[in-house]
Amino acid sequence: MFWHWLWRFFVPLPYYVTRPGSADKLSPLVTVEGHPSNSEGVFRLVTIAMGQANIYSYLAAKVLPYQEIEKESDVRGENETDEEYNVRQLSLMNQSKNNAIQVAYKAAGQSVKIEYRGVYVLSVMPDAPAAKVLEAGDLITAIDGKSFESSAEFIDYVRSKKVGEKSRSKL
Description:
Elements: H1 2-7, E1 15-25, E2 44-52, H2 55-63, E3 68-71, H3 72-75, H4 82-107, E4 119-120, E5 139-140, E6 142-143, H5 151-160, E7 169-170
């Protein structure tokens, strides 16, 4: 009986809880050769923690400061699987890291070269023909043997295709 009651605390609810994460010093993580670190002040990496709510975290968020409850439908895409959600979150984190690196290099007076590698698949509609060959996390590097220099070129090419026209993707 006790285990049956305890189990209920860990059942996921259709909500997510957002709360403050950590504020870690960046100095051990970021260095720029030829540029001494600024001894005045400290740069910190600030994080936000978010996770699917259970009854315990939901109730805690109701009474604790700086915690917010979000509907699952406001956080996840329609019919988005756990894998697709995780891939999307990792993609957003990588974009954020890359943006921070670019800003840091530019602030240090260094040049930045951006190399386009392809388009990451964040989700695949289950009834789409591509669902048999693509999955969240795949990197498409070419279509029909054609490589692209930017996402805009990739999108323009895909838009130029007729509905139902077949394509070959290189992963």
